[in-house]
Design a protein that fits this description.
The complex is a heterodimer of chains A (171) and B (487). Chain A has 171 residues and is an alpha+beta fold. Chain A contains 3 helices and 11 strands, in the order αβββββαββββββα. Chain A has one domain: CheA-289, Domain 4 (OB fold (Dihydrolipoamide Acetyltransferase, E2P), Beta Barrel), CATH 2.40.50. In chain A, β4 and β5 form a beta hairpin. The longest helix of chain A has 19 residues. Chain A is globular. The mean pLDDT of chain B is 83. The chains are: A alpha+beta (171), B mainly alpha (487).
């Protein structure tokens, strides 16, 4: 109980200190990532690449030749298509996804399994994939943290692929 | 085969019959002889009366003749005597010859003659007295009296002749009867002597043979009796010895039985103490049973409280789910706010800081929620473990209660058995006392039996002596019935 009280006291102290301290500028540049899991594997999505994170509620399925297209969903009055990020990265997509991220560059929603949290690292913590590391689609860099190494999903590559598939499908 | 007594009885019976026959014949002969002698005497009596009658009448005539001649009254005495005796003689003759009709006829014919003679005599006397001698001589010379007297003598002569004939006949009968009796007695006596001699010889031979055989049997039996008496004496000595040993054993048994009785008494006393302790233990068991029931209630209460704590933990878990959900949503909102702040450029930096603080807070809340969930899970696990342990304890208490109930039941049974043991101990004590009394009686009986065995031994010796004497007597008797060289 003493540890719990101590923790509570620390939280209260930190919370109070947060109001007491002045707002300082960034002393060092940082990057934000979303830690997610796709098919059981840890991945990361750059926070600057997305416009929003939200739980997947309702998806209206559409007849489509694209298996990666799950359907459409409503988002703040707009209708956006929902693609399965697992299928796009070549994972098993039999289980229903629970989370969505909205791409910042394009109104497209990507569904995935598990949201693990927000990761803020110093800029430069992500690096290009090393030559000896295996090559995978839509993975061009990795995020290295003290705990683990997470492949960073390239939203640009994903959106290009979707665009290509849509154009091919329309054609 | 006839027995000796039967033979003797038969010999005596035949001899008795022979003697009886001889006696009967002798009696008959004597009776005939007596009767015949009576009739001989009777005939002599009749002859005497007939002769007397004639004599009396002759005496009367003689007296009358003297009176007539002399005129002296003294000569009339025979006449006067005849007047009295003649009627009596006539009466006696009628009675004596009542069985003889011929004599009765002659008496009937003689009566008027007697009366006429007496009348003639009387008339002559009266004439003498009245007319004198001459008249009387004339009257006598008339011969009336002589005729009557002759006729009377003729009749009395006939009567005498017949009576003599009868006398001769009866004399012959007497001689015949006497002869018959004599022959019968002589022949019967000879026959009886012969029979008795034959029977005596036969009985002597038979008796000698049978007595000899019996004596030999008696001798052999005496020998056997001696042997048996010896064996009996030996057996009696052995029995006496055995009985003495048995008496010793019985005495030891008696001592053991008394020890058993004392032990049984102690057992009964201990059993009574056990009964008292069992009753006390029963109360203690009841108190312990009540305590176990209280423990059972407390355990049930603890289980209920633990179950309630489990429910509360579940409710806390549900609240934590809400808090976790809120923290996650807050985190998502903070992330989205961070994204929005980044999109707002410099104007959104301050907002980004706040959003970052909110995200950190949400992360901390999520971490605390995880810790709390871990704690709650630990609590729930502990509650479940406690409930399971309590239920196990409850089951153990139930089991213990049941076992204690069984123990209590067993204890009651033990108490009942102790009571039964007490009763049995008393019964054993009583039975052992009775057994002791019985053993004492048996000991007394054994002592009596020992005494009886000794007496039997003495009696056997006496029997042996008696058998020896009997053997000697048998030899003597054998010598008596079988002289030396006969057997």
């Amino acid at each position: 109980m003493s540890d719990t009280w101590r923790t509570a006291e620390q939280l209260r102290q930190d919370f109070d200190d947060a109001f007491a301290e002045a707002v300082h500028g960034e002393t060092e540049p940082r990057e934000d990532f979303l830690a997610i899991r796709l098919g059981g594997d840890a991945h990361a999505i750059r926070l600057a690449d997305i416009a929003s994170l939200l739980p997947l509620t309702v998806v209206a399925r559409l007849p489509s030749p694209l298996p990666e297209l799950l359907g459409i969903t409503g988002l703040r009055g707009a209708i956006v298509p929902v693609y399965d990020l697992r299928a796009l990265l070549g994972y098993d997509a039999s289980d229903p996804p629970r989370w969505l991220v909205i791409a910042a560059a394009w109104p497209v929603a990507l569904a995935f399994d598990t949201f693990e949290g927000h990761v803020r690292v110093a800029r430069g913590a992500s690096a290009r994939r090393r030559p000896n590391e295996p090559s995978r689609r839509h993975i061009h860099e990795v995020l290295r943290t003290p705990e683990q190494v997470r492949p960073v999903v390239s939203m640009t590559s994903i959106l290009e692929t979707i665009k290509t598939m849509v154009q091919q499908g329309v054609a | 085969m006839w027995t000796f007594g039967k033979k003797i009885a038969m010999g005596f019976a035949v001899s008795f019959l022979l003697l009886l026959g001889i006696g009967a014949v002798a009696y008959r002969s004597i009776d005939v002889l007596t009767t015949t002698s009576y009739w001989v005497t009777h005939t002599h009596n009749v002859l005497e009366h007939v002769t007397g009658l004639v004599s009396q009448l002759s005496e009367a005539e003689t007296g009358q003749r003297g009176f007539v001649i002399t005129g002296d009254e003294t000569y009339l005495r025979p006449y006067e005597a005849a007047l009295i005796s003649v009627p009596q003689l006539m009466k006696d003759l009628r009675e004596l010859t009542a069985d003889n009709p011929n004599q009765q006829k002659r008496l009937a014919a003689a009566e008027p003659l007697v009366a006429a003679k007496l009348a003639v005599l009387k008339k002559a006397i009266e004439i003498r007295r009245q007319a004198g001698l001459e008249a009387t001589i004339k009257f006598v010379q008339a011969g009336e009296g002589l005729r009557a007297m002759d006729a009377l003598r003729r009749l009395t002569g006939e009567m005498g002749t017949e009576e003599k004939t009868l006398l001769n006949q009866r004399t012959e009968e007497v001689e015949a009867a006497a002869r018959t009796a004599r022959y019968t007695i002589i022949l019967g006596t000879l026959l009886c002597l012969l029979f008795v001699t034959a029977v005596g010889l036969g009985l002597t031979r038979s008796l000698t043979t049978q007595i000899a055989a019996a004596v030999q049997h008696v001798q052999s039996s005496s020998a056997e009796l001696q042997a048996a008496a010896n064996q009996q004496a030996a057996a009696a000595r052995e029995a006496s010895t055995s009985m003495t040993e048995i008496a010793t054993t019985i005495s030891e048994l008696l001592a053991t039985a008394r020890q058993i009785a004392e032990s049984a008494q102690r057992v009964a006393s201990v059993a009574e103490q056990s009964t008292t302790a069992a009753r006390s233990g029963d109360g203690t068991v009841q108190l312990a049973n009540d305590s176990i029931a209280g423990i059972r209630q407390q355990v049930d209460l603890v289980v209920n409280h633990m179950l309630e704590l489990g429910k509360k933990s579940q409710q806390i878990g549900a609240v934590l789910d809400i808090v976790s959900e809120l923290a996650e949503q807050t985190n998502i909102l903070a992330i989205n706010a961070t994204i929005e702040a980044a999109g707002a450029g410099d104007a959104g930096k301050r907002f980004g800081v706040v959003a970052d603080e909110i995200r950190k807070l949400a992360d901390r809340v999520a971490g605390s929620t995880k810790e709390t969930r871990t704690l709650i899970d630990d609590v729930r696990g502990a509650v479940n473990t406690t409930v399971m342990a309590t239920e196990t304890a409850s089951k153990a208490v139930d089991m213990g209660s049941r076992q204690f109930g069984e123990v209590a039941t067993t204890f009651k049974q033990i108490a009942s058995l102790v009571v039964t043991t007490t009763q049995s101990g008393r019964e054993i004590e009583l039975a052992t006392k009775q057994q002791t009394t019985a053993v004492e009686q048996v000991n007394l009986a054994i002592s009596n039996t020992v005494q009886a065995s000794r007496e039997t031994e003495a009696s056997s010796r006496q029997t042996f002596q008696t058998a020896s004497q009997l053997a000697g007597l048998s030899k003597d008797l054998l010598r008596l019935v079988q002289p030396k060289g006969a057997g």
